Automatic annotation (TrEMBL):
UniProtKB keywords: Methyltransferase, Transferase
Top-rank taxon, per record: Bacteria
Top class in the EC scheme: transferase
A biological-process GO annotation: methylation
Protein name as it appears in the record: HIT family protein
Organism from which the protein derives: Massilia haematophila
Residue ranges the record marks as coiled coil: none
Pfam families per the UniProt record, alphabetical: HIT (PF01230)
Motif (Histidine triad motif): 95-99
Keyword Methyltransferase in annotation: yes
UniProt domain HIT: residue ranges: 9-110
């Protein structure tokens, strides 16, 4: 393996310099998406420009799956959603990434996907309470991912 990352011209996920990952290493980055209606929405982004999970080696697939798992656990622990959606679409941006989205029965789209038409407006007090958890969530996420990735790389 080389230290040179595979990049695709014009791919917004190949250049994460404008974003502040809560966790990043040579293989992947995790960001908390700045979405006022979905506090705690995260993306786990594979650093190399690949389209599908099947493009990864077995070792890298396990590493990526562990990162997605750790993000989901942190979302559940800190954000306390009714459900967590985990999705890898890549139809618009064909760069391997996962969405981890805390869902609440009062969110604008529940029970439909967040990309569907909104069916309600979430009360601002509920959103503000969820947004207030973001600093704690970012810390928990960084700690969990650092520990998990260290274990994966040692084992």
């Amino acid at each position: 393996m080389t230290d040179t990352l595979i990049r695709a011209p014009g791919c917004e996920l190949c250049d994460l310099s404008a974003l502040k990952p809560v966790y990043a290493d040579s293989k992947l980055s995790v960001i908390i998406v700045d979405d006022a209606n979905y506090p705690g929405f995260c993306r786990v982004i594979w650093r190399d420009h690949v389209r599908e999970m099947s493009d990864l080696s077995r070792e890298d697939r396990l590493l990526l799956n562990e990162a997605v798992h750790e993000v989901e656990l942190a979302v559940r622990e800190v954000m306390k959603p009714a459900k967590v959606n985990v999705a890898s679409l890549g139809n618009v941006v064909p760069h391997l990434h996962w969405h981890i989205i805390p869902r609440y029965t009062d969110d604008a789209h529940f029970p439909a996907p967040v990309w569907a038409a909104a069916v309600r407006q979430t009360e601002e007090t509920h959103l503000a309470a969820r947004r207030a958890l973001l600093p704690e969530f970012a810390d928990a996420l960084a700690d969990a991912l650092s520990s998990a990735m260290r274990r994966m790389n040692q084992g």
